[in-house]
């Protein structure tokens, strides 16, 4: 589909150019040379036969003057490779082979969970009322020497009748580029600079969502045993064998993981020591009342210097940093310290932005950090007994079984639906499940049976085996380097939309945030489903009422910061949520499409100044009817 759109866009631009030349009466003797330049993001591999620049054709505008008015000669058959006029496949967008969304300004219609306000309102909304088939049906023109546009034969029949939906209704979320207006890139637009505390917070979220950030089964004792040798003493004459690359890599990993956990222990211990120092001063104040506070402090410092074997200056310098750790711990909890990573040292050394506002911000994140830590790192609290805290987990289950909010304690997910469905349950899955009753053993998303799979975007080979996979499109969610834990949380909105999804970290434009997974079925009505179709196969629905992932909770905005897009991975069509540029702490939103809203008698509460459905008289409350009962 991407190729077809690229072709049709080029043809449209070319047509416009030809029209304007003819209209200006300048056609005489004017010819248009059509060239393509291949731009490589990376040094090209295995494309020796493809030149960097190709002249596609030369169009004699004069000869088009008469053809222009002749509608009867508008159709030619699709050309095959080798035939005259056949063109090289187009890349998916003008400057890259990577699967990026349409260019344009960033940060539209974003709901800030901290302020509870929507922001960023400068673009006209996508014209979803335009009949999709009209927009896609770029007819192939018989132009003398012009570009040939492949006929769009795989146009989904479910979309073709979009203008007149049949009963019973299904609120269908729509996918693909076609529903989103192409946007211009903001070359010199304002850039959002994160404050230092925001950088610290983003670092904590990243480490919390990194499955390897805390490894307690360290191999330190064995490594030390290696160094000690058999005699139990350091054996200087017998170096450890480092000749094997694999063994060295494993040892390096073990030491790196161990050191990371050691650093986490170091930071919590140092924060705890500051508390202990203050407690000691308080004890002295009670027991040695004859000493002035400054003398009590000096005595305590002297005692500490003796035990640490440091000078007072060294100790005071370190204490200044450790106090920062303690303040962060008091505001955001132990998990913030354990998952802060190395940035926390610099942050506290220079006291970068740890002002009252920053502390308020950190305080608001304490429970959210702990939910992520408890549900993603079952071992993390095992570090806490060293500072006198319990190792018991507090928040159990899936990270998205908890709904966070600004003003209240986190709530169990089911609790937030109790007013509509007292038996609400949700099964968190990572892969879609096919409804066997409807589809038998067939997966309606299948585009290719394999065994070889070629990416539709980059034309490189896709494979589940890392060494054989050449496709890096959306590598953040497909393939061996896929991110396991996506840094998002389900949160309670404050304006009647019930739950939504908040980005803990920023998501760059074009990044896949997640796959829209659910129950692959068909024939559902009067409920929310994602309607799609693989090639010209039978359409299918993805239903997330009782099972799915966080994408189930993404709300609609008329100026969304994400969009749906299909992508084929290993021959199966997937539905992705792609970022249009989402800053940390903003709500993720998509445009559900006009068709969806036409089926729903309800006000849109997206808060955008360009909202298409804000002025309806329909119900404003969340109905919770996005499930089958
Ligand atoms: C896929 S769910 C999204 C998650 C939902 N808010 C929840 O708590 O389950 C879609 C439903 O959310 C609500 N919703 C989403 N976006 C909305 C918006 N912009 N205005 C009003 N309601 C919205 C509607 O009730 C809609 O049927």
Automatic annotation (TrEMBL):
Pfam families associated with the record: SET (PF00856)
Gene3D superfamilies given in the database record: SET domain
Disordered as annotated region, ranges: 82-190
Basic and acidic residues biased stretches: 97-115
This protein's name: SET domain-containing protein
Residues annotated as domain SET: 486-593
InterPro entries: Class_V-like_SAM-MTase, SET_dom, SET_dom_sf
